[in-house]
Design a protein that fits this description.
By secondary structure, the chain is α/β, with parallel strands linked by helices. The protein is built from six helices and nine strands. The strands form two sheets. It has a seven-stranded mixed β-sheet with strand order 5-4-3-6-7-9-8, sandwiched between helices. Strands 1-2 form a two-stranded antiparallel ribbon.
């Protein structure tokens, strides 16, 4: 896939620290990339969350690769996928099918590019799943559906904002209510309702991430308790 003209042409393909099995096209400085793209578009753009590998996503990806039985043979939804890191890890761990969902079109383009760089197949969904009755309210049809039938739902670093956290929890509750296992990654940003989750793994945040988020020291993988 050519990257010229997509906004992804000045990214570097690198091994992800802490998850070296996965390679991603990432911005050297996401803020600089964002400013350059806004200047090119002459418009305000959504922050490029997909252009960095977030700590919570790294935790989930590491856990899935170390415990492939978590996803092996299953249908997996990676919610708010961003770069596609968690989706790619699930595909590498033997998932029967993986859908990476994100509402940012740049993220969807990055997911496609990154999946190809890692030699795995990932379905892409650009639908906003959060407000549907069970996540099955539609898809843009890019490549294989919206993951509404997922056996396992993975979400890395989605509790970063109070309002988003409420919508995320509601969606994840609905997914768990229809029988899906829900695992999220969180580095302690303060908006995750801890009483609703049990911790399944905790890792020390890599030094490179610690410089960016000096107040964070650990990243955890947590399983949603069914309400």
């Amino acid at each position: 896939m050519a990257t010229q003209g997509t906004g992804l042409d000045r990214l570097r393909l690198v091994e992800v620290p802490f998850v070296p099995e996965v390679r991603l096209h990432l911005a050297e400085d996401a803020t600089v990339w964002w400013a350059r793209m806004e200047a090119r578009a002459d418009a305000r753009l959504t922050p490029p969350y997909w252009a960095s590998a977030w700590a919570g996503g790294k935790a989930v990806a590491r856990y899935v690769l170390d415990h492939p039985q978590t996803v092996a043979g299953q249908r997996v939804l990676d919610l708010a996928s961003g770069s596609g890191m968690v989706a790619i890890a699930a595909a590498k761990a033997g998932a029967a099918g993986v859908t990476a969902n994100d509402i940012d079109p740049y993220a969807v383009a990055a997911i496609r590019l990154n999946a190809r760089a890692n030699g795995v197949h990932v379905n892409e969904s650009h639908a906003d799943l959060l407000d549907g009755a069970d996540g099955a309210d539609g898809t843009d049809g890019t490549d294989g559906g919206d993951g509404a039938d997922a056996d396992t739902v993975l979400a890395g670093d989605v509790f970063y904002d109070r309002s988003i956290a409420r919508r995320m929890l509601a969606f994840l509750d609905r997914a768990a209510g229809r029988g899906a296992r829900v695992l999220v990654g969180d580095p302690g940003r303060g908006h995750l309702p801890a009483d609703r989750f049990r911790t399944v793994a905790t890792y020390r945040i890599p030094l490179a991430d610690a410089f960016a988020d000096a107040q964070l020291t650990h990243m955890s993988v947590l399983e949603l308790r069914r309400s």
